[in-house]
Amino acid sequence: MKRTGKTNPRLTDLIRMLRNVSHESEAQIWREIAKRLDTSSRNYAEVNIGKINRYAQEGEIILVPGKVLGSGVLEHSVKVAALNFSDSAREKIAQASGDCMTIEELVSVNPKGSRVRILR
Q1: Which domains does the chain have, with CATH numbers?
Q2: 90-108 b/e with 16+ CB inside 10 Å = b?
Q3: What is the pLDDT of residues 55-110, one digit of tens each?
Q4: Nearest by Cα to 66 from 82, 52, 78
Q5: What is the pLDDT of residues 24-47, one digit of tens each?
Q6: Separation of CA 43 from chain center
Q7: CB count, 10 Å around CB of 13?
Q8: Which alpha helices (H) appear in the chain, and where do they start and end?
Q9: Which long-range contacts (CB under 8 A, 24 or more apart) does 79-85 make?
């Protein structure tokens, strides 16, 4: 039997919420993230801590529409929002005095999506 759509209720609710917030606050970033999450999970981003360290500045907000993995070293404090985190990624972000949050939490804190960098 062929599946016709997403079966994870958290993910379907997140995609719906991102589209609604995008429409209400006129922030195109949330529509883009919803579009990326509505594709096959094979296309989700898998970003290592080392890449976050390379491209993020101190105190910046990073959004990963997928999973953050723990390979590499994080040398400065950043806020990272993602769909999922590996345990080692959470530890390394916490050791660097950073903050891990879900995409839902980021949207509630920053509905306009300003000053958010997307890594994929």
Answers
A1: 9-118 (3.100.10.10)
A2: eebbeebebebbebeebbe
A3: 999 999 999 999 999 999 999 999 999 999 999 999 999 999 999 999 999 999 99
A4: 82
A5: 999 999 999 999 999 998 999 999
A6: 14
A7: 12
A8: 9-25, 28-37, 49-55, 87-95, 103-109
A9: 80/52, 81/105, 81/106, 81/116, 82/47, 83/11, 83/14, 83/37, 83/44
Q: Are 45 and 61 in contact (CB under 8 A)?
A: no
Confidence of residue 4 (pLDDT cuts 50, 70, 90): confident
Return the residue matching tokens 């005095």: 97
> Cα separations (Å) of 66 from 23, 35, 48, 74?
22, 12, 11, 19
Query: Over the range 20-47, which residues count as b (16 or more CB within 10 Å of their CB) and which as e?
Result: ebbeeeebebbbebbebbeeeeeebbeb
Task: At 94, list the tokens.
Answer: 């916490």
**Measured between alpha carbons, how far is 112 from 114 in angstroms, rounded to an integer?**
5
Q: What would the two tokens of residue 77 be? A: 């404090």
